[in-house]
TrEMBL record:
Record Pfam families: Glycos_transf_2 (PF00535)
Keyword Transferase set for record: yes
The keyword Metal-binding is annotated on this UniProt entry: no
Domain Glycosyltransferase 2-like intervals: 4-111
Protein's name according to its UniProt entry: GT2 family glycosyltransferase
Keywords of this entry: Glycosyltransferase, Transferase
Annotated GO MF terms: glycosyltransferase activity
Family: Belongs to the glycosyltransferase 2 family.
Length: 280
């Protein structure tokens, strides 16, 4: 049985749209667990009233993304889940999203799969997987390198985000859950999929499955929207900071090839210290 795990904190309108899209799936053979991490906008009450098919796990307001996802995964595995799909609440699944993910999961039963992401407003593809160079510290976007005819089916990637990530239960048995101790919010998904890949589990982007996302709603974009010294500090040191230096260091030490670690760290620190003000 597939279990879909959605961590939430407030933003009920997004959660409702996400759950409504799951109700409209062409293949409804799955169950949903929402981890409500102390929402103050009535999310918990509305979930129980309007979506009785959804199992709600309550948090204490301090779980953040990684511990929230892990709480849902533990519950799902206890129920006997054989596949887990982590999903952010600010996404909308295409009607055949689950069907297209499971189609390829049955053909690649040990693989981790992520969907092609489209901008929810323009329907333009905005993320189609990356192949990362540890030497140059740069990703190669498959959207840019694949021809239109090749933008279908599965393509191997270095890592995947967690906002639509399908994971076989066997992966958790082999490598454990997401690293909530060292990576409480950002990079936990990239770390998890990178570790899984090195342990022999293929990691693919699935161009046949589509997920609508709102890139302007990400924590990183909101932090940069009004640049300030306080925002800069949060960017570098806050739990929700996209440039968190501590998190980046942990990610690098765990995943970068050992001979490249010093150069990779220096490159990464420079990008994070300057990128907050340089990015448009």
């Amino acid at each position: 049985m597939l279990y879909i795990i959605i961590p939430v904190f407030n933003r009920w309108a997004f959660t409702r749209a996400c759950l409504d899209s799951l109700r409209q799936q062409t293949m409804p053979d799955f169950r949903v667990i929402v981890v409500d991490d102390g929402s103050t906008d009535g999310t918990g009450e509305r979930l129980r009233q309007d979506y009785p098919e959804v199992e709600v796990v309550d948090g204490n307001g301090q779980l953040y993304w990684t511990a929230g996802v892990n709480a849902g995964i533990r519950q799902a595995l206890a129920h006997g889940a054989d596949r887990i799909l982590t999903l952010n609440n600010d996404v909308v699944a295409a009607p055949d999203f689950v069907e297209r993910m499971l189609y390829w999961a049955k053909r690649q039963p040990t693989a981790l799969l992520g969907p092609l992401e489209l901008d929810a407003h323009s329907r333009r593809p905005i993320f189609g997987g990356e192949v990362f160079s540890w030497v140059t510290h740069t990703p190669r976007s498959l959207l840019d390198s694949l021809s239109p005819d090749d933008q279908q089916g599965l393509h191997p990637v270095t890592y995947l985000p967690g906002r639509g990530l399908l994971i076989p239960a066997a992966v958790f048995a082999a490598i454990g859950l997401f690293d909530e101790k060292r990576l409480p919010h950002y990079l936990a998904d990239y770390d998890f999929t990178s570790v899984a890949r090195r342990k022999g589990f293929p990691v693919y982007i699935n161009y046949d499955a589509h997920l609508l996302t709102y890139p302007e709603e990400s924590g990183q974009e909101q932090t940069r929207r009004q640049r300030s010294l306080r925002g800069y500090y949060q960017h570098l040191f806050g739990i929700r900071g996209g440039g968190n230096l501590r998190n980046f260091t942990h990610f690098a030490l765990k995943n970068c090839p050992a001979p490249l670690v010093p150069l990779f760290l220096l490159n990464g620190y420079a990008r994070r210290l300057t990128g907050y003000f340089l990015r448009g």
